[in-house]
Design goal:
Two copies of one chain form a homodimer.
Chain A lengths: L1 E5 L8 H13 L4 E6 L1 H4 L13 E5 L10 H7 L4 H10 L5 E4 L3 H12 L9 E2 L2 E3 L4 E5 L9 H17 L7 E6 L9 H12 L3 E7 L10 E3 L2 H27 L2 H9 L1 H10 L7 E5 L4 E5 L5 H16 L2 H12 L4
Helix pairs in contact in A: 1-11, 3-5, 4-5, 6-7, 6-12, 8-9
Chain lengths: ~325, ~325
């Protein structure tokens, strides 16, 4: 198995990316990696990689698509970037998957225009895994498609189902539709039109999930249009941060609080770990013709290694093939 | 000043409603209240109200619109409900405002069809005040209008501006648009079309506010379509609840955590109070021809008294008149 890694993506590249790649290689002796980036910058970081060096090949990709340029233009013009070269390597079969902590827009555009959609899939979607205290749920889509049609949402459910079965080993993942009420007739025009289509879809649809229950473990996959999904994703970070800030402030306000904070440190550390995305890896881009994982831009080495591990599981779990078969089976119904 | 109170609305009616009304009357000697409900049920609760009894009149309204029926049908058929009688009392000027902890749908439908919109206002909106740790921000709309046009959102900003100036005494409230990115060109079709219109609007538009900054005190009024707004409202409850649950669980997991929880109790109590909606009152229904406040369904007496206080401030602060003048001034531009 060979995965193409964008060495220049993310806030801590290339150092953390290379370190994370080495961690992933040491964990899985069958893994091979192509490191794409400016060879002059990447190669010197492989100093202590002797034990895995024979499983790393370097691909000189001197161009970088940054967060500050149009992703579509970047993917079109910067053909010597790791994003473009990696997507093409997956397309021609020389690599099995692609992982990047770089520009989300560039990964989306590269997936759409260089790698290509799975035939029958209307829109690929970005699908992070989020903590709910008990485990994780998938949120799909979280921003790739801000304006959606009901058919897209139905397919998001199909893609999430394939991921949860292939990667997480679930037999019958629960697929829910994010809505403002639990009843079938609730919601805006989009979700009202989506609901009956999901009832017919070839997966375990558990109905609407209200926003207050998103973190309540009512579904394994939560489907939303990319605008709503992005609100949920970003708001979760915001509220959690605000609440932790308020707690900290109130604890520091008097001696009793300070003492409590000191004694409770291990418990708070466990809470932080439970809510920590770096243990999960990244967000798969589902619906394209290959295993693509977008790691968090602020990934450290360990988080990036997890993202590579996730990509590996997607390949082993045949997620792309399952989506492809699923969408073929659905097509005649429409 | 006379406010019509729906005595039968909410989980704790009529007991908590009547108690809250007495609390509000004792706080403001100029306040008069009409208590609408089945007189036989309401009157016996006024036993210890001798000091304010002369400022309470009872209006026999034997019918109740519940959460389990169509609000529109309820408002059409149950003409002897407090919701309908109260809205009509505000409409004919015999009362200045209306407060209910009952069915949100019934308050909306009553406001729309019995009380009526302010001329020029496209859609009234429900606008709760939410805690951000430092103070409160208004979220408008939070569910009354699930499918919106850009013009509605522009008017939501105008209504929020009028409320913040009239009730909170702000000189120049900051009006923000909830979006998935800070840049003007971000978002779905709706918010992209709304942004340039808000730039032209006669209030202090501060641009897009990303979901992660909703609780970050970047705006005093946050505008959203009712679907997105409801997601934000309900998700905030959900995440906060989940996070507090995780913290509690981890603290109870060992002796050290338990000790920390015990010592930190006063700090946690302060956090809870900061995040507590009952101190705020209810959500104003803005855009109708009167001061209408929807109190939380689970309001206790104190929360309901706060909702009456909020309605009082809306009347004193001339919120309805300000919205009416604002929309008239905007009209020629369109």
């Amino acid at each position: 198995m060979k995965i193409y890694v964008d060495a220049m993506g993310g806030d801590n590249a290339p150092q953390a990316i290379v370190e994370g790649t080495l961690e992933a290689l040491r964990k899985d002796p069958e893994l091979q990696v192509v490191l794409g980036g400016p060879v002059g910058e990447v190669e010197p970081l492989l100093g202590d990689a002797a034990d895995v060096r024979d499983r790393i090949s370097l691909d000189d990709a001197p161009e970088v698509i940054t967060n500050h340029e149009s992703p579509v233009m970047g993917v079109r013009k910067k053909t010597n970037s790791a994003t473009v070269k990696g997507m093409l390597a997956v397309r021609d079969g020389s690599c099995d998957g692609f992982v990047s902590a770089g520009s989300t827009g560039a990964v989306l555009a590269g997936g759409m225009f260089r790698l290509g959609r799975i035939p029958g899939i209307e829109r690929p979607a970005l699908a992070p895994l989020m903590p709910n205290g008990k485990g994780h749920f998938m949120l799909i889509d979280c921003g790739a498609n801000v304006d959606c049609k009901p058919e897209y949402l139905v397919q998001f459910g199909l893609m999430g189902d394939a991921y949860m079965r292939g990667v997480m080993g679930m037999e019958k993942p629960r697929i829910g539709l994010i809505n403002i009420g639990a009843e079938a007739e609730k919601g805006n025009a989009l979700v009202k039109a989506t609901y009956p289509l999901m009832e017919q879809a070839p997966y375990h649809f558990v109905g609407n999930v209200e926003a207050r229950d998103i973190t309540g473990d009512q579904a394994d996959v939560l489907v939303a249009d990319g605008f709503s999904g992005n609100l949920v994703l970003k708001f979760m970070e915001g509220v959690a941060g605000t609440l932790m800030g308020i707690i900290k402030k109130e604890m520091m306000a008097d001696l009793r609080g300070k003492l409590s904070g000191l004694i409770g440190k291990p418990a708070f550390r466990r809470v932080k770990k439970l809510m920590d995305y770096t243990e999960i890896g990244g967000a798969p881009l589902l619906g394209v013709q290959g295993a693509v994982v977008k790691a968090h831009g602020s990934s450290n080495a360990h988080a990036f290694a997890s993202a590579i591990g996730q990509c590996r599981k997607m390949i082993r779990g045949r997620v792309v093939e399952t989506i492809s078969e699923g969408v073929k089976a659905m097509a005649p119904r429409e």
